[in-house]
Amino acid sequence: MVFKFFNKKGQGHVEMIISLVLFVGFLFFVFVFANPLTKADDGVSIGVTQEGLVDELSYSVGKLSVIVNTTSDCYDSEGFGGYGSSFVEVKDVVNLRRYTLYFGSFFNPSKVNVISCSDLEDYNFSLGPYNEEKIIVYEEVERFVNEYESDYFDLRDYIGAEDFSFNFLDLDRNQINFLDDSRGLGVEREPREGSVVISRDINVRMIDKDARIYEVILNIRVWE
Questions:
Q1: Among 79, 114, 168, 218, fewest CB within 10 Å belongs to which?
Q2: Domain definitions of the chain by residue range
Q3: d(Cα 188, Cα 148) in Å, to the nearest integer?
Q4: Full pLDDT tens readout for the chain, 224 residues
Q5: Distances in whole angstroms, Cα of residue 102 to Cα of each of 62, 71, 142, 210
Q6: Rounded-to-integer distance, Cα 94 and Cα 91, Å
Q7: What single-letter DSSP state applies at residue 121?
């Protein structure tokens, strides 16, 4: 019986080639199938619409955590100017020593810069890190829906999109309605007969003027 032993150096080359092939295959998958700008055969692209829509509905929102030493302490907003001139406070219902401040230009004026513990005499607190994120604003969605229904074609051209519709769903994929009526938070438009329709779900966060946060799904459909 004859035993043949692989040369270790040659075996290493084979493994390297296999790894390279797998890596190139992975990149091909990402760019062809997972690329948000991928177009259908007829040239429809959902990526441009997604980017334009999310940008139109979003604001940059700052977030700062404040921890008071005891529940008998409060905090002072002096020196917060570097984060923004307008904030809304949200008190943690579990950790009563923690307050989260959201900074933005769209909040309810009656709640802006209101500190709920300001009647306390002692000010002992520490600040957590400050960060910003671009987040969809509920009131901007309301505005956009109304503009879509009244002037669709100008709005479509403004954001540089294909023909499109969109809806906001909860995490169980149930339609979300306007806060003050039963209309669905979104718009429906029937594609032309024979159109190729591309649909995409995006998990997003939404905030309203009272700094309430919602975890939702944005469903976008485009066609040409």
A1: 79
A2: 46-57+137-223, 62-132
A3: 10
A4: 443 444 444 555 545 555 655 655 555 444 434 444 444 444 567 999 999 999 999 999 999 999 999 999 999 998 787 888 899 999 999 999 999 999 999 999 999 999 999 999 999 999 999 999 999 999 999 999 999 999 999 999 988 878 999 999 999 999 999 988 888 999 999 998 888 999 999 999 999 999 999 999 999 999 97
A5: 5, 21, 21, 10
A6: 9
A7: S
Q: Which amino acid is at 224?
A: E
Helix (H, G, I), strand (E, B) or coil at 29: helix
This prediction's pTM: 0.77
List all residues 6 or more positions away from 62 whose beta carbon is below 8 Å from its beta carbon: 83, 84, 87, 101, 102, 103, 104, 130, 131, 132
